[in-house]
Amino acid sequence: MREMERKVIQGVADGQIPRHQYRAILIDEGHDFKPEWLQLLATDMIDSSTEDLVLAFDDNQNIYQRRQRDKFTFKSVGIRAVGRTTILQTNYRNTKEILDLVSRVVSTEERPSEDDSIIPCLKPIAWHRQEPDPELIQASSLQAEIHKIASLIRDLPYDWNERAILCWTNAHLKQVATILKKHNIPHQVRTRSGTYNPSQPTVKVMTLHASKGLQFNSVAIVSQPRRRRPTKEDLSLFAVGATRATHYLILGVGDTWKEILLQSS
Predict the structure, then answer these.
(1) What is the pLDDT of residues 113-130, one digit of tens each?
(2) Can you spell out the DSSP letters for 202-258?
């Protein structure tokens, strides 16, 4: 992958790949793009006579490039947005209740971008649905927590393939699958690329990382293994997982997140 990146960037620099060949560019999941990728698209690939660029970006879900993003600016990669920027603050996927919880957990703050020197991190100000508050699960053990999650997931009024259980580590996938089997819940464990079938009538079991880019009517997140305090990367990963849910969210509280989640509920 890195070699391909190098060859594409070098190909543009050498003139082997034509510049400015697109009149408009849409970039989704822009928070996962490296600065050099954005610079290639915004500076070299887009038609200079139009410069029509749509960038979907949510720094709360930045789980891959936190260190780079601390020093990253739009201006530094040639995105000239001053005076011509429309910031979209309506969330069409999640409910008000899910967004409220995620916003409080990750401590999102609106930051002005007067000279485009920083990337704005914004709270949505509008949404399209309201549903029940996220369900917080406290249990005496991880096994007991997963049993509670299984019971709640089983009784939801959605198709099986619209329900998912997300884990922080691969180590918990097998444990979740074993308990779902005891509850007679059809399930599919996504262990690697190619082991995910979205149309199969099964509850999807996967890691938070693997859930990125997907969505389900209902999502349950198994509690994180014990740590002293969640890191910035943990908070971003939590935001990714929680916002996979379009209607209903279940959260295992656990020791690591107990204080944060209970204070945020």
Answers:
(1) 444 444 444 455 555 556
(2) SEEEEETTTTTT--EEEEEEPPPPP-SS--HHHHHHHHHHHTTEEEEEEEE-HHHHH
